[in-house]
Amino acid sequence: MMDGHVNWTALAVFVFFFLLVTVMGFWASRWQSGGASSKGAHLDEWGLGGRNFGTWITWFLVGGDFYTAYTVIAVPALVYAVGAYGFFALPYTILVYPIVFVIMPKLWHAAHKAGHVTAADVVYGRYGSRALELAIAVTGVVATMPYIALQLVGMEVVIKALGLTGELPLAAAFVILALYTYSAGLRAPALIAFVKDLMIYIVVLVAVVLVPMKLGGYASVFHAAGDAFAAKGGATGLTLKPAQYLPYASLALGSALAAFMYPHTLTGIFAARSANTIRKNAVFLPAYTVLLGLIALLGYMAYAAKLTVKSNNDVVPALFNALFPSWFAGFAFAAIAIGALVPAAVMSIGAANLFTRNFWKAYVKPDVTPAGEAKVAKIVSLVVKLGALVFILFLPTQFALDLQLLGGLWILQTFPSVVFGLFFGWFRAPALLAGWAVGLVGGSWLAFSDGIKPVHTFVIGDGSYTLYTGLTALVLNIVVAVLVQLVVKGGPLREPVLARK
Q: Is 468 within the bounds of a domain?
């Protein structure tokens, strides 16, 4: 029901599962802590779970913060709005895992060997440049903030679908999140991710089997969607138009390169027990891509169900409210809401780690103790979540969407600084910093000139070529870094120890 009347059965189921994960979140402070209460007073313990997560915990944690509540809401909404073009998330999440397999074990070794907590730590350890370290840290924090706000958007959509109005339910949910993240650190979302992913799998598998059965089969689903897109005209449709091939491919590649530059995904990597744990996860995580493909199909099913929604983001909740009993709708909404808690917690922890290690320790209190680091990170994680809550309550949702698009472009510009030094020692900090600055400014200028759209069209002669703006900015970034390095010259850095095991 989406007419403002509370669906009490759905709400009761929703509250039950929300309370369940709340209890788990507070209990998580004792989970895998080895019984030593003092261990919690260390950034490695609070911010990285003791760097001791094995294959299964890492699989659920990385999957939990990569496939978020907003993914479950936004991917079907995009498919509902633009058809086949919305499926770019599938090749993106296929391309990302070979990148993880090749790069992330080396990054883990760099962090583990020197006790680094963030990507900016690794960059400083490699290049010895405070300016480059600060650039990477600021980019990470700024790119993460709107991402957290979008988790609130996902939660807001399902709370509205339950018939609840006003900001109080959303605020209460995030106060609870803030408290158990403060208490348990990364262990809370790691533990909750088990429940979240199991619930999401159940919801999606039930939906992709039962919804088509209720709507006359997949043939009817695709036929209804095809007719709706034909009526719209334009670029929408069940298949890509030739003009969409290049932007589709560049969006997938650019998104894949950016995905594991975000602080929250790297936090899951740094928390792994070993490099082999990461390699195994790169093999197993594509199971989530199958799930994502099934989730995307919900966008087509909405047409067969003849839904009328005020916003594309309402498609998934409206589908469950229309076609399932109240108790299952409540279960589905709880799964989506919990799917917001896990990544929001990890994102706030990742941002807090960056602030603590690469600003507070670097500039304010270099002699801060490990316990002092943990205390600062806990407080900052509260501030970050509060900031995201204020952001979503007082600013238009479109603003968060626009900033998240820009965030992807910005975080992609950290790729050369974070990754190149793992494999060769040719670049120096001034070249990488110049590339980062030009890529960030140039990419942002292109995005703003296009009205903050993710792609930009270049007209060359008689032809026009549309590419993901973030990927264009990355190419510019690398070209500038190479040119500056050739001008600056200078011998190579010391042997790239961070590339060694």
A: no
Distances (CA, A) of 121 to 62, 135, 234, 368, 467: 21, 12, 47, 16, 32
Q: Which residues contact 385 (CB under 8 A, 6 or more apart)?
A: 148, 174, 177, 178, 181, 344, 348
Whether 128 shows a pLDDT value over 50: the answer reads yes
Band of pLDDT at residue 501, cut at 50, 70 and 90: very low
For tokens 């000139």, what's the residue?
449
Give every CB contact of residue 166 below 8 A, 6+ residues apart in sequence.
none
What's the total number of domains in the chain?
Answer: 1
Domain of residue 178, CATH code: 1.20.1730.10
Q: What is the pLDDT of residue 39?
A: 46
Backbone angles phi, psi at 456, to 5 degrees: -130, 140
DSSP 8-state assignment for residue 490: -
3-class DSSP state of 186:
coil
Q: Is 70:153 a contact under the CB 8 Å cutoff?
A: yes
Q: Would you say 447 and 453 are in contact if contact means Cβ atoms under 8 Å apart? A: yes
Range of the domain at 109: 8-28+40-401
User: Counting beta carbons within 10 angstroms of the beta carbon of residue 48, is it exposed (0 to 12), middle (13 to 18) or buried (19 or more)?
Assistant: buried
Residues 153-174 have pLDDT tens digits of: 888 888 888 888 878 888 888 8
- Residue 4: strand, helix, or coil: coil
Q: Which of 147, 156, 184, 189 is nearest to 21 (CA)?
A: 189
Cα 171 to the center of its chain, rounded Å: 21
Instruction: Report the pLDDT averaged over residues 102-126.
Output: 95
pTM of the model: 0.90
What pLDDT does residue 270 have?
95
Residue 431: inside a domain: no
The rounded distance, in Å, linking the Cα atoms of 501 and 497 is 8
**314-to-2, 75, 159, 398 alpha-carbon distances in Å:** 9, 12, 11, 15
- Show Cβ contacts of residue 132 under 8 Å, excluding neighbours closer than 6 positions: 123, 124, 417, 429, 432, 433, 436
The pLDDT value recorded for residue 41 is: 65
Residue 60 resides in a domain: yes
Q: Which residues contact 73 (CB under 8 A, 6 or more apart)?
A: 153, 154, 157, 313, 316, 336
Q: What is the pLDDT of residues 332-376, one digit of tens each?
A: 999 998 888 888 889 999 999 999 999 999 999 999 998 899 999
Burial of 363 (0-12, 13-18, 19+ CB in 10 A): exposed
Q: Is the residue at 65 inside a domain?
A: yes
Q: Tokens 């070209």 sit at which residue? A: 479
Determine the Cα–Cα distance for residues 316 and 307; give it in Å rounded to an integer.
10
